[in-house]
Each structure stands twice: as structure tokens, then as C-alpha cells.
Amino acid sequence: LNTIANTTWTDLRGADVEKVLSDLGAVPEAVRTGVRNNLGGHWNHTFFWAIMTPGGANAPGAELRAAIEGAYGSIVNMVTAVNAAAMGRFGSGWAWLVVDKDKKLTIINTPYQDTPLELGAKAVIGVDVWEHAYYLRHQNRRADYLRAWWNTVNWDKANANFKKATA
């Protein structure tokens, strides 16, 4: 935020990233789009890379598994639904497994660098469906990328995200 706030918008300097993204309406209109795009992009990518940290469990823990099975019937059904949300995002964006503002596990997608935080949701898993995320290996085959991407999910991170979101 220091680059954005280095002159006129000093009230943004040092602000909590998640708080800013959760209440973009409070950001001055003159810089709101830049904050959404740049700070949102930073938050989204940081979250995305963390969920793919090497190591960790290769399946959800008991608490997250129970929530997924309660909402989607099975892990396979949840993966299918996240992939459908990702495929349904026209152009660039993200697909998310989130805990929504009503504390329900749900799947959403967001355009460009918009975050689930703007919707009052807390991310559990997020997958980047900007073409840059998959083009070198999968060219324009987003579905192939999504199938392969699930092999990179660090479920320990997802479990921790779920616990934080439901606390």
C-alpha cells in the first residue's frame, strides 16, 4: 500500500490488507480500482501460492472433509464443482472454495483480481484461472490445468484456512 499511499492517500499506508479488501467502499474512489486490482492481485496470488506449498497432507482433514461432504456429498463432487466454477469464469479470474458470511461452505468465482473478501467470504482454497497460470504447460486447455492443479493442493494449508474461516 505504500506505493499507492505515498502522497495523498496516507490513511492507506500500513493498513491491514484483508481489512482494506473487505471494505473497498471505504477506499477513496480515485484509487479504488487500483487498490482492487493491485492489492487484490497481491492477496489472491499470495493465497494461491501458499495453498500449493510443497508437502503437507494430500487430503482434507476430518473437520474440512466433513464440511465438504456435508455441502457437496464428496470430495470428488466438490472438486468437480470448483472446476465448473473455474471453467465458467469467462476470461481471467479465480475459483474459490470459501466459507461465506453465513458460515456456509460454498464455491464462487471472481473476475480479474477481485477477492472473496469483498463478498464477506473467507477463502479455503483458491485457484488462479488467468491464462498465465497454465498457458506454458497446458496452452489454452484450462480443464487440463484444473485436473492437474488439484495434485498441488497442500491440504494442511486448506485445513488451516478452514479453521480460521470458521473460528
Task: Quickly describe the structure.
This protein has 167 residues and is of the alpha+beta class. Helix content is 49%, strand content 13%.
What layout of secondary structure does this protein have?
Elements: H1 2-5, H2 17-22, H3 29-51, H4 62-72, H5 75-88, E1 93-99, E2 105-111, E3 122-128, H6 135-138, H7 142-149, H8 155-166
Antiparallel strand pairs: 1-2, 1-3
The helix content is 40-55%
Q: Number of helical runs?
A: 8
> Uncertain segments of ≥5 residues (pLDDT<50)?
1-7
Molecular shape: globular
Strand content: 5-15%
- Mean pLDDT reading: 90
Series of secondary-structure elements, N-terminal to C-terminal: HHHHHEEEHHH
Terminus-to-terminus distance: 28 Å
Give the beta-strand count: 3
Give the neighbour order of strands across the main sheet. 2-1-3
Rg over alpha carbons: 16 Å
Largest sheet: 3 strands, antiparallel
> Which class of secondary structure composition applies to the elements?
alpha+beta
